[in-house]
Amino acid sequence: NTVMAARMTDAHRRFLQVLMSNGITEGSEARKLHQHCCEADKVYYAHDKLDDFISTINSHLQPLFMQIRKGISEDDGRAHYAVVNLAETEVTKMASDYTEIELELFRKTMDLIILSENGFASSTDILNLADQLKTKKMKKKEAEQVLKAFVEDKWLSEKNGEYTLHTRCIIEMEQYILSNYQDVARKCNICHSLAIQSQVCESCGIGMHLPCVRKYFRAQTEPRCPKCNEFWSCDIP
């Protein structure tokens, strides 16, 4: 007998619609939304059942090659949720919103960020790419506007003129990044999700997100690598 998936209620549909329109939703907001949707639809609500609630939605999204995925912010370690289209694992996700030249600038920016040591690329380095694009050259002023749009649409994050991949981008493009940057892309040894901003063990090469480093070493008497047990030489954030 095939066990039928739990019924998708109006509460599930409302939750999914908001998640899709947001692009990405922070964990505490997702929990509030879960409560609001259940109460509005007068269905059973339990504060610790968000994962089950999302699993039900995911079982109905499966035939559509879509999924709600959870990811961790590399800045503060907070959970975030985004709806991912599994049929489009490449930058083609962005193709309906951006021109070919804008996508080329994004790919080159992604190269700079992922190949950097700290997971950031400076605005100067990115803007220097603008006149090296194959599609056609882009004026720096134009490139600045495009970068602003990438930040507003939550594909990039910017801090003091330094850009990194937004949590939304990491959740949605994890598979694309892992398969296209096999030599450099690594998963965090603690939470096992893709790590862009990370610290790396000098002895064995494993990486850890900064919030995961902070949390892991808080419980240790001295900082030693969780894999090879060598002394962790990076500064604990």
Q: How would you characterize this protein structure?
A:
It comes from Daphoenositta chrysoptera. This protein folds into 3 domains: 10-64, no CATH class; 91-174, Orthogonal Bundle (Arc Repressor Mutant, subunit A), CATH 1.10.10.10; 185-236, 2-Layer Sandwich (Herpes Virus-1), CATH 3.30.40. Helix 1 (10-22) runs antiparallel to helix 2 (27-40). The longest helix has 16 residues, at 100-115. The strands form 4 sheets. The protein has a 3-stranded antiparallel beta sheet. It has a 3-stranded antiparallel beta sheet with strand order 4-6-5. It has 237 residues and is α+β, with helices and mostly antiparallel strands. It has 8 helices and 10 strands. The model has no long low-confidence stretch (mean pLDDT 90).
